[in-house]
Amino acid sequence: MGASLSSLTEGANGAAMGPGLGDIPESCVACVFTYLTPPEICNLARLNRAFRGAASSDSVWEQKLPSNYQDLLDFLPPERYQNLSKKDIFALLSRPVPFDDGKKEVWLDRVTGRICMSISAKGMAITGVEDRRYWNWVPTEESRFHVVAYLQQIWWFEIEGLLKFPFPPDIYTLSCRLHLGRFSKRLGRRICNFDHTHGWDVKPLRFELSTSDGQEAFCEYCLDDTEQYEANGSHKRGCWMEYKVGEFIVNGSGPASEVRFSMKQIDCTHSKGGLCVDSVFIIPSDLRDRKRKGILK
């Protein structure tokens, strides 16, 4: 690419041929950059001085930041972002920003600049989690929060969560990240133990979502339908699975949206166990779908 661009400004013998990329005014380059993604802008910044200057312009990066980016900065100490350019603020917010005592994280998608969020199991109300006969907290590097809740056995399974946050206008998907079986490492290899895994093939787990403006969604998943998944050549045991609960729409920049969610299996006719609960994700719907297809990284 560098050779082809050089040919725009040099002749066959290295002589100048006339106007080239280096002659484009920085203000014009900045206008073009407003239509590009942050990774594209950073790649083009290496071309010449005008492109590099435009790629650092606050007017460019102001448009890449969400309308409520100041709410995200408020979670950080002022000395972390004071005197930073808009480009550096984007880079800062594209890394997870913890809040609520580290039980929740929010960040900007590096390509689109849109809001993404994750809520740890420690940020949810889990019935019986204080009783070690039922639940344990398991440290792990497989969670972005470095800990998951592991259910050994229980009859009444109920987890609820509440989030109040000023989401910018978008369509968001809420999903839950779960894992059947307890995992660990032995001699550097990942192994899974399913001794406690039972009861999830009897009746489905019910997921619910509601918002303060009246939006609702619910769905049911059978977490351990062994016969079905063996017939399809796949299996949910021993793998992290994301279960889509539903979508909600934020239309304007009004008061903070209040989102409630839950996971329940409260049929006390049978016990269930052997389940790891990691987190809940809230991500723009089309962004989640594109990432699942491998279009965005």
From TrEMBL:
Residue ranges annotated for the F-box domain, each copy included: 18-64
Transmembrane stretches, start-end: none
InterPro entries membership: F-box-like_dom_sf, F-box_dom, PP2-like
Alphabetical list of Pfam families matching this protein: F-box-like, PP2
PANTHER family hit by this protein: F-BOX PROTEIN PP2-A15
Protein name: ATPP2-A13
Organism: Rhizophora mucronata
